[in-house]
Amino acid sequence: MSVKKPQKKLIAKTVITAHANADFDALASMVAASKLYPGATLIFPGSQEKSLRNFFVQSTTYLFNFKAFKDIDPDRVELLVVCDTRQRSRIPHVQGVLNNPGLKVHLYDHHPDTDDDLDAEKSVVKDWGSTTTIVTDMVRSEGLALTGEEATLLGLGIYEDTGSFGFNTTTPKDFEVAGWLKSQGMDIEVIKDLLSHDMSAQQITYLGELLQNASNYDIHGVDIVITELSTDSFVPDFALLVHKLMDMEDIKVAFALGRMGDRIHVVARSKNPDVNVGRICSSMGGGGHGVAASATVKDKTLAEVRDDLFALLYSEINPQIVVDTLMSRPPVVMEDDKTLADAVELMTRYGLKDVPVVERGTLHCVGLMGQVTAEKAVSHGLGAMGVSEYMSRSFDSVEEKTDLYRVMEIILGNRQRMLPVVDNGEITGVITRTDLLNMLIEEPARIPDSLLPDRRRERNISSMVTNRLPQDMLDLLKAAGDLGSELGWEVYAVGGFVRDILLGRPNLDLDLVVEGDGIAFAKELAKRLGGRVKAHNKFKTAVVILDDERRVDVATARLEYYEYPAALPTVELSSIKMDLYRRDFTINALALRLNPGRFGQLVDFFGAERDIRNRTIRVLHSLSFVEDPTRILRAIRFERRFGFQIGGQTMRLVKNALSLELFSKLSGTRVMHELQWIMNEEDPLACLNRMQELGIMEAIHPLLELNRDRVQVLIELVKVHNWYKLLYLEPKAVPWKVYMLGLTMGIKRDQLSQVTGRLHFTAREEREFFQLRDMIADALMKLMGWREGRSRLSRLYAILHPMPVEGIIFLMARSRKEHIKKNISQYLARLRYLEIEVGGNDLRELGIKPGPVYTIILDKLMAAKIDGKAETREAQLTLARQLYRDLGDGDEVIGRP
């Protein structure tokens, strides 16, 4: 039986694609872009429209040589060109390249901005009728010619997205570019045939259902038509049916909800400038323009989508409700030179949860101070500190004429409890979450799910999980999720494990959080997978140790309930949020749902994904370092490991903690524990240098400051230690011992105990460390007399062999003579593991009486073997007899019967 060879992947350094469920504008703009990027590979994004797919298969495939993503090697992509969208969530078919190191992204689009937009080196966005118009205009400007087939396809994209120039979004540029395409051979008859929509009998049936289900609603004086249909199969040209409906009934604003299988498709059209359907569909996970938009919703029923739509309509179509009708004025503020104790007093007096902070002598708002933070800071003895040290500097503000939807986005979507209202840069009032909720109680609509506190839309990264984890880990995650469903509990993977999936880094240290009984869950998981459990009843945690020695940490979470005012629904918040809030940084405050049906959904309460994308280390709250100063060392470790940057506010909090001398209050055990983690990093010196730069080394102990000599040795230590690790030899070097030798180099023996005492070395650790330093000092003296070519290699062996491997690594890094470095490396890699062929039993058979002489003889045999004087067993036995004669008193005869 022949074995099918795996197909060789195409190397595509430049890739062009568009949004999933592509329309003609998407495909046409891709082809236009291929003229600007010669040699690029076009990746077909997929489409649900059967007529479009047939056209693509019959014509576009052979004309323009589109490829599937599976045909290329994603790791080799250097430039990604995206047409007709900028949203990350709309290009799932190329997610595999977005984390490529150094990837460049170019964007071409005509849709409005969204929070989901990709960061790009080049972004060409114009409010024209189609993206094809934008790219084709650039092709024309470059003086590039088109074939008739190319011009026809590009024209098709423009005609479709402008409604054959009948939509209000059509611009003069669309006409102008279409005219140029005609001069290039565009065939209008072909376009007409492709865009003609003779309705099938089935489509007429669907249109009848839409007409029958259509209902009119008066929402704040605006007439809205909402209609629905339900079918188990996909309805091609659903948008065409909506156009027909609007034309037949002279409808100004229409929303059509179509359940097709397990998804709800939303098509929206508006001829009323007060109704921006693009913004509404964007809130539902889709996108588009103010006059034409769409969305696809998973995991919801028609009724739930309809409720969300009503909520968004009442929020959006609300021209009479703007900020100045909601705001409280004048605002209670405090100046930035006041103390935290002043802040607590002020907020207690007025019953405030937050207060705006303004520059002294002005009304320029520079931050927000929360009551919880201020009170906790005072409880830590920081009442005399200025509010500017701990206030939140990252906040949104609005102007008095801002509409309700933006207020809801900030207060409910972004969870900013107080919203400053400004005019000409000065604060004139505030809107609190209570103000907003009290107003919403009077409205007949619910707050949309997308804006409910702590119920943000969750991105599904199951494909990323599948592609980036080994199969055995994937099986483990699914087994945990299945078990959780059987027991009726939600199960999450949390922390650095999830972070490293997003970063594409290997990490098999799995932490689970269970909304239920974590210990019972762990026991059942161990029973099913084979393994044992170590439970910690006090903390309701457990460790599952599987038969292959993999470990899974399991923690317990409880459910908590928060009641909102009467007309609003009860929001159930799992304590997964509280579990994540206890973590150190946003990038570690992530959870991944594991239960079937929701597997792979990313839970991100604190903007972790944004911070990962922006390569930023950010604490979760302003007292983080006050509560645990060791988090500063962790911030540095993650910053250096990932190539991130500590955020501006977080860095201010670092410097504030150091100014308060919080490190002096830390136990040496905790500091040493964090230092050991740092010294386990691939490049610990990068962390140590950063600590020196911030004054942390001196804060730990003044004798640990990095001087030039120590830095030079540490540079060499990193090189030698990494080289030794690559040899995979035993015993492994203990990293902290290696680098602590470098850190304490030059410290006198009588002072060293100050450092070891500060770091709480155990008595054994301190004794062994002092002994190791003494052995190194002795070896250094002996090595000074060792000469290449004149000194025997066995002498080097004798100097090094009694010493632990950490000391030998230090000697190799410390030595400035290349020949000594070379021979130490030879000792580490080969000589250390040499054995002679003669042992104690052989000496006994030679008639040598056991005693100290055995050690002397065996050492000399090893030296002879190293120096090439006794490499075989026979030669070693002969030498042993000779050595005993030389060492003996001459009265005994070896080998006599």
Short structural description:
The protein has 897 residues and is α/β, with parallel strands linked by helices.
Written overview of the protein:
GO terms for molecular function: metal ion binding; nucleotide binding; nucleotidyltransferase activity; tRNA binding. InterPro entries: CBS_dom, CBS_dom_sf, DDH_dom, DHH_sf, DHHA1_dom, NT_sf, PolA_pol_head_dom, PolyA_RNA-bd. This is CBS domain-containing protein. Its cofactor is Mg(2+). With 897 residues, this protein is of the alpha/beta class. The chain folds into six domains: 182 residues, Alpha-Beta Complex (inorganic pyrophosphatase (n-terminal core)), CATH 3.90.1640; 116 residues, Diaminopimelate Epimerase, Chain A, domain 1 (Roll); 129 residues, CBS-domain, CATH 3.10.580; 141 residues, 2-Layer Sandwich (Beta Polymerase, domain 2); 209 residues, cca-adding enzyme, domain 2 (Orthogonal Bundle), CATH 1.10.3090; 54 residues. It is built from 38 helices and 27 strands. Helix 3 packs across helix 5, helix 24 crosses helix 27 and helix 29 packs antiparallel against helix 30. It is globular.
